[in-house]
């Protein structure tokens, strides 16, 4: 009963997103995810791509991280041609507003007037960016209503900015209206994530999807974001596979997204070959990324991911009562009773299956790609958010390095990017990093095709 109540509570968190519909990506799409640090250092786009890599193995797409930490919309506008359009995307997602809605400025005596003027300036720059985007009919636009600032969690008394949450909510309303006016796609992270925070904080006041600083989601929060994006694309309830077999008469009554061949069986055993069209989603159990403490898999407590996106179902009836061992390609993956097999099991939750282990390799290759891409985004920050203001955009010689070293002594962000820039300023190294990523992506799409697996289910004495 408690499990049912929990599921209903989780599902209610996403009622606000039911009406969202943006077309799924198609083969050949080049998708640029544009935003601030939540995009720059975050994983939601990588988790989305991993779903496509595993669930649609022959639908090859390319995703780009086009976020830069600290950016407000005016900075996003200033770098658009050099940093976004240069990637030649045909699909583009845009999220902004966290930095536009201010921080310590909310403690000024004239905070309301000051922030109103600032946000009005952001709306002006967004209008300029909107015109730039409207001129590109070859690019499909998706506006992401970004993750919320959490002012209600009690995990710390720090990073509380009175007025920020309300201001960010106003920006989200503005973005939604602007996207509707242009008939652009909309994906809402903001309201469903607020709902999750409210529901979880009713049980634990220290809970937050942004547990480090109220601003940046941890890996579980990014998985919630990926879930909301894929759900908005209408991809929920598309199983990895769904199989039902009668062992007694060797008949397949269901085979969704897969092919079953060479069935042999009786009341004591069953053997068949299984070729799926998808792989299970390999949920990560390790914290990833600087400053993060939670794993992607912790999102399973918050969203119905397994129920909606990761079902690889197998049901077998017609077996005698008793205990059975289940093997795939000769490896034991579990023991179940005849009744449990008839009720069905979700193979996607068994991490020892060969198809799950195949998917894990894809996940690790994708993480390696993410790590390399982060170096290029750190370089982009130095170029667009520091050197450009010094009149040194892409002037990556000794003078630029000297300028970086000089300002690093008093600028925390320059100092944090200094060592990376010392390497990334050389085009040969940046090109080598890109080649490494290309090799990783090629390898992913070489090994992500499901293989024909031999299942044997045998009664144990």
In short:
The chain is of the alpha/beta class and 461 residues long. It has 14 helices and 14 strands. The protein is 43% helix and 18% strand.
Question: How are the SSEs ordered, and which strands pair?
Answer:
Layout: H1 2-12, E1 30-35, H2 37-40, H3 44-55, E2 62-67, H4 73-84, E3 91-94, H5 111-134, E4 140-145, H6 164-182, E5 185-188, H7 190-201, H8 219-232, E6 241-246, E7 251-256, E8 258-265, E9 269-276, H9 305-309, E10 312-317, E11 323-328, E12 331-337, H10 338-343, E13 345-346, H11 354-387, H12 398-408, H13 412-424, H14 427-447, E14 453-459
Parallel strand pairs: 1-2, 1-3, 3-4, 4-5, 6-10
Antiparallel strand pairs: 6-7, 8-9, 9-14, 10-13, 11-12, 11-14
Helix pairs in contact: 3-8, 3-11, 4-5, 5-6, 11-13, 11-14, 12-13
Describe what you observe in this structure.
With 461 residues, this protein is an alpha/beta fold. The chain folds into 3 domains: 24-232, 3-Layer(aba) Sandwich (Rossmann fold); 241-286 and 297-356 and 449-459, Immunoglobulin-like (Sandwich), CATH 2.60.40; 359-447, no CATH class. It is built from 14 helices and 14 strands. It has helices at residues 2-12, 37-40, 44-55, 73-84, 111-134, 164-182, 190-201, 219-232, 305-309, 338-343, 354-387, 398-408, 412-424, 427-447; strands at 30-35, 62-67, 91-94, 140-145, 185-188, 241-246, 251-256, 258-265, 269-276, 312-317, 323-328, 331-337, 345-346, 453-459. The strands form 3 sheets. It has a 5-stranded parallel β-sheet with strand order 2-1-3-4-5, with helices on both faces. A 5-stranded antiparallel β-sheet has the order 8-9-14-11-12. Helix 3 packs antiparallel against helix 11 (354-387), helix 4 packs parallel to helix 5 and helix 5 packs parallel to helix 6.
């Amino acid at each position: 009963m408690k499990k049912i109540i929990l599921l209903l509570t989780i599902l209610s968190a996403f009622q606000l997103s039911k009406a969202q519909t943006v077309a799924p990506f198609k083969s050949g799409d080049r998708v640029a995810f544009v935003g601030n640090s939540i995009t720059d250092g975050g994983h939601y786009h990588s988790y989305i791509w991993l779903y496509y890599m595993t669930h649609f193995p022959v639908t090859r797409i390319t995703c780009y991280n086009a976020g830069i930490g600290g950016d407000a919309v005016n900075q996003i506008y200033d770098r658009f041609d050099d940093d976004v359009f240069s990637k030649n995307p045909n699909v583009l997602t845009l999220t902004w507003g966290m930095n536009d809605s201010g921080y310590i400025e909310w403690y000024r005596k004239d905070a309301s007037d000051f922030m109103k003027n600032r946000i009005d300036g952001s709306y002006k720059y967004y209008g300029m960016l909107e015109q730039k985007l409207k001129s590109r009919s070859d690019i499909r636009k998706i506006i992401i209503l970004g993750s919320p600032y959490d002012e209600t969690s009690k995990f710390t008394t720090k990073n509380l900015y009175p007025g920020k949450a309300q201001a960010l909510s106003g920006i989200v309303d503005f973005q939604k209206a602007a996207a509707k006016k242009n008939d652009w796609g909309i994906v809402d992270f903001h309201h469903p994530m607020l709902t999750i925070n409210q529901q979880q904080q009713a049980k634990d006041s220290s809970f937050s999807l942004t547990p480090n600083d109220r601003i940046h989601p941890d890996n579980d929060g990014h998985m919630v974001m990926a879930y909301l994006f894929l759900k908005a694309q209408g991809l929920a309830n598309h199983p990895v596979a769904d199989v039902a077999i009668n062992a007694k008469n060797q008949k397949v009554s269901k085979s969704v997204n897969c092919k079953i061949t060479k069935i042999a069986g009786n009341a004591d055993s069953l053997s068949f070959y299984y070729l799926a069209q998808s792989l299970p989603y390999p949920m990560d159990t390790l914290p990833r990324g600087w400053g993060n403490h939670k794993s992607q898999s912790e999102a399973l407590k918050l969203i119905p991911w397994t129920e909606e996106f990761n079902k690889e179902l197998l049901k077998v009836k017609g077996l005698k009562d008793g205990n059975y061992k289940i093997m795939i390609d000769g490896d034991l993956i579990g023991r179940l009773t005849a009744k449990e097999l008839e009720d069905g099991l979700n193979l996607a939750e068994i991490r020892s299956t060969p198809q799950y282990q195949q998917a894990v390799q894809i996940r690790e290759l994708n993480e390696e790609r993410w790590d390399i891409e982060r170096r290029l985004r750190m370089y982009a920050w130095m170029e667009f958010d520091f050197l450009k203001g010094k009149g040194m955009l892409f002037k990556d010689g000794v003078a630029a390095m000297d300028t970086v070293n000089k300002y690093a002594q008093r600028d925390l962000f320059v100092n944090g990017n200094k060592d990376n820039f010392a390497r990334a300023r050389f085009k040969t190294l940046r090109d080598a990093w890109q080649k490494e990523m290309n090799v990783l992506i090629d390898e992913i799409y070489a090994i992500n095709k499901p293989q024909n697996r031999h299942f044997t289910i045998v009664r144990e004495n």
